[in-house]
Amino acid sequence: MTKLTPAEIGRLVDAGRGVAPADLVVKNVRMLDVITGALTPTDIAIVGDRIVGTHESYEGTAVIDGAGLVAVPGFIDTHLHVESSLVTPLEFDRCVLPHGVTTAICDPHEIANVLGAEGIRYFQRCAEHTVMDLRVQLSSCVPATRFETAGATLSAADLVSLRGHPSGIGLAEFMNFPGVLFKDAEALAKLAAFSDGPIDGHAPLLAGRDLNGYIAAGIRTEHEATSLNEAREKLAKGMTVLIREGSVSKDLHALIPLISPDTSAFLAFCTDDRNPLDIAEEGHLDFMIREAIRQGAPLHHVYRVASWSAANAFGLTDRGLLAPGRRADIVLLDDLESCSVRHVISAGRLVTPELFAARGSVEPVGLDSMKAAPVEAADFRIPAGAPATRVIGVVPGRIITEDMSLDLPVVGGEKQVDLDKDAVKVCVVARHGANNNIGRGFVHGFGMKRGAIASSVGHDSHNICVVGADEADMAVAVNRLIALKGGFVVAEGGEVTAELALPVAGLMSARRFEEVHDGLIPLRAAAKALGVVLPEPFLQVAFLPLPVIPHLKITDYGMFDVDKFALVEG
Questions:
Q1: Which helix (H) or strand (E) holds 392?
Q2: What whole-number distance in Å separates Cα of residue 305 and Cα of residue 256?
């Protein structure tokens, strides 16, 4: 919240005492106390961006009739990448805020790996105009891995130079946990530079003494827990577990039993990666809330996880409760169990289309970031080697993949796809202009029978990733993607059958989220026409360039043991 003058504080006091009118009053509403679970009939009085009165009757310049509604604190998404919504931060604001998300803590890690500091500054500029409170963490892992060539490098000194913007909280997810454990100099420099504030975690499957060492470095949160046992160990060691439910990574059902009166103060919700199609079909944090309640989690503890606990985890002590002096982020619901949102108040303002229309604009960046050279079908050939071929095994609903071994056919000295074994090709094409490398391999789990799909969203370095049953279609898809300056493409029979342009750093559309939503529908249908069985094939493709960690044996410093990486370096 903004710093106040003595006169402004005096006005808050007068309105709270009822001797002066409030700016806005929600009348006759039932208010949920996320600490005690009490439901209290009350008015809620607001001046500026702050609540000044509850549990009393108030008069105000503007009034919202809250009869029949329930007021809860605004929801806080504690970890996400706006880029994965496929729209710009201003469109993300317009898409998600009506679902009750009044604060979003983002890591611009994806655009930073393409554009570096320019991408983070773009997000900071956008945060100055969003209606929601968009918090921009500083991306800790640019580049994310030594296995790929990213578009930028950010040192500790670079990150320090970006510090101080009002949207900042601290250091974003520290993915390079081997760098922490093996005391890499640059990793330690980044941790030291931000040791006086929140440092977000990212340590999938890390356990035991290695987990202790990672936490000892000052890292306090974790969104990568995918099982109850993993989450419980991390809770026991003092971490706040951010329960995740995105378009690909779906951990909510596995972790719902974690939500209890004993643990809810140390949990929060996050989406990580969620696209407009899923937001329209299911919702955002409102979906997580209603699903957790439906599965039996205690109701007011679920709402506590979505608000007060989330705020505390990141030092946002000005929000998370409906109480005098707190930021006026309020969600008005028709029903608590179904989390059906009727109205949203963000920083004391009723959210309306006119409120979005009154925002300033920010020019997009990275419109010329696609520097990949055109490809040919021959570029995707894989020479025969050992009889057994290492294959990436996709697991629906998870970004953690399996390390498989399959015997694949050989023709003319080259390994071939095997549709009966559901083994098709996956290749990563460099696109940042530093080189023309192509990584080649095979993937199992798509169900693809023909054609190809390509994406310039390729975590975390965001080169082009293409999956295909036909090399010629793979080339068609990649070359069309280059012409679009980024996006998603489906090709079959030498023709493009569906596409969506994402020219903002090759990650986001410059169009409205409704248009992106509508564009994803034919893309999904075109992918299914190829036989693809995955519910979110494009985001699944996007995560394939990540290194495989089948057993998480860290043998030396590096993002992961190079022996576990399934793609063949080109």
A1: strand 388-393
A2: 11
Helix (H, G, I), strand (E, B) or coil at 171: strand
**Which helix or strand (DSSP H or E) is residue 186 part of?**
helix 185-193
CA distance 302 to 305: 5
In sequence order, what are the residues at sequence separation of 6 or more whose Cβ sits closer than 8 angstroms to the Cβ of residue 549? Answer: 204, 205, 400, 560, 564
Residue 303's pLDDT is 98
| Cβ-count burial 492-512 (b if 16+ within 10 Å, e if not) | beeebbbbbbbbbbbbbbbbb
CB 223 within 8 A of CB 272: yes
C-beta separation of 165 from 186 below 8 A: no
Separation of alpha carbons 56 and 28, rounded Å? 10
The Cα-based distances of 185 to 137, 218, 249, 464 in angstroms read 21, 16, 31, 30
What does the buried/exposed string (b/e) look like for 386-416 if buried means 16 or more CB atoms within 10 Å of the residue's CB?
eeebbbbbbeebbbbbebbebebeeeeeebb
Reported pTM: 0.93
Is residue 336 scored above 80 in pLDDT? Answer: yes
Nearest residue to 96 (alpha-carbon basis) of 269, 259, 241? 269
Pick the closest to residue 99 from 276, 225, 301 (CA basis). Answer: 276
Q: Is 554 exposed, middle or buried (0-12, 13-18, 19+ CB in 10 A)?
A: middle
The alpha carbon of residue 129 and the mean position of all alpha carbons in its chain are separated, in whole angstroms, by 20
Q: By the 8 A CB rule, do 403 and 448 touch? A: no
Strand arrangement of the beta sheet that strand 240-244 belongs to:
221-222, 240-244, 267-270
HSE value, Cβ hemisphere, 13 Å, CA-based, for 380: 28
How far apart CA 439 and CA 552 sit, in angstroms, is 22
**166-179 confidence digits (pLDDT tens):** 999 999 999 999 99
Nearest in space to 148 (alpha carbons), one of 434, 399, 401, 366: 434
- What are the pLDDT digits (tens) for 258-303? 999 999 999 999 999 888 889 999 999 999 999 999 999 999 999 9
The Cα–Cα gap between 226 and 150 comes to: 27
What pLDDT does residue 547 have?
A: 59
Which residue's entry shows tokens 């169900």? 447
Round to whole Å and give the CA distance between 333 and 32: 11
- Cα atoms in the 13 Å half-sphere on the side-chain side of 150: 22
How far is it between the farthest Cα atoms of the chain? 88
First-to-last alpha carbon distance for the chain, in angstroms, is 51
- Amino acid identity at 141: C
pLDDT digits (tens, 9 = 90+) for 416-466: 999 999 999 999 999 999 999 999 999 999 999 999 999 999 988 999 999
The DSSP 8-state label assigned to residue 227 in this structure reads: S
